[in-house]
User: What shape does this take?
Amino acid sequence: GSISLVAVDDHERLLGVVLGATDPGGHLRAMLQRRGLRMAARLAAYAVGHRALARELVVTRGHRYARGITRIALTRLRRPSPSSSGSAASHKVGEITHLFVQPDRQGSGIGRALVNAAVETARAAGVEELVLMTPPDFATRSFYERTGWWADGEMSSRSRESFIRYRLSISTKVPKGGDRADADGSSPVTC
Assistant: This one.
């Protein structure tokens, strides 16, 4: 399943978006097959009329997406992707892939509200932990750390860019080998 949440004001202006997946394995496949081009076209059309959003998308996503899509396309042309027939994991992990808040609305609680809603959506789907990646130089790192996420090392994307991996336990269970237990049932992300 996917996580697609939008915050708008009283005039239906876009304030923020959070996207992710409760089943990351099926997320990309479903997005590309069912909605990918239509969603990309709608976002591009909206961005044309909203310069701040367009600039933010180009700065934070444009180059990375172009490199990633090119690399994936070239990899698929060279060899077919293996079929996925693995068994279900006992520890269900979801992901947040995008969080965007209009620059003039950052610091107003919109990001926190979107993340809280994403956490509840994931929890309702049986997810026990969420992960996300953010570039190491982004100021958003302090946002994630203030809201209960913890850094879990660095990694590189398929397009060879560096990222910090963050985790957030959203279950009442203690993660295996983890030291972050929310045994009282509370979520580490609160308003």
In short: Residues 4 and 19 are 5 Å apart (CA to CA).
